[in-house]
Amino acid sequence: MAVILTDSNFDDIVLKADKPVLVDFWAEWCGPCKVIGPIVNEIAEDYKDKIIVGKLDVDSNPGVSAKFGIRNIPTVLFFKDGQVADKQVGAVPKGNLVNKVEALL
Fold first, then answer.
1. Which domains does the chain have, with CATH numbers?
2. pTM score > 0.70 for this model?
3. How far is the CA of 97 from the CAs of 26, 73, 81, in angstroms?
4. Could you list the active site residues?
5. How many CA atoms lie within 13 A of 25 on its CB side?
6. What pLDDT band is residue 1 in, cutting at 50, 70 and 90?
């Protein structure tokens, strides 16, 4: 299950993580976000011991969204050692995201 991220817990969960982190930036009204959401949840389950998977609602958490320049959603950022290591904008097949996760491991 994906962790719910907020402006207040983002740094502790993502930037200080001891393993790679996938962050799904989404919004309730976003159609493509509804397509990628279940894929992100599947990856959270498939890689539960290897990575952290989080979801951040951009409408409720404008601070983190602005900090990382999120202009289009869904956007998935991949973090390693507290830094953005990769990025995917838009709804894509699961394999695209899995390839990016595997590259971080």
1. 3-104 (3.40.30.10)
2. yes
3. 15, 15, 19
4. 30, 33
5. 26
6. confident
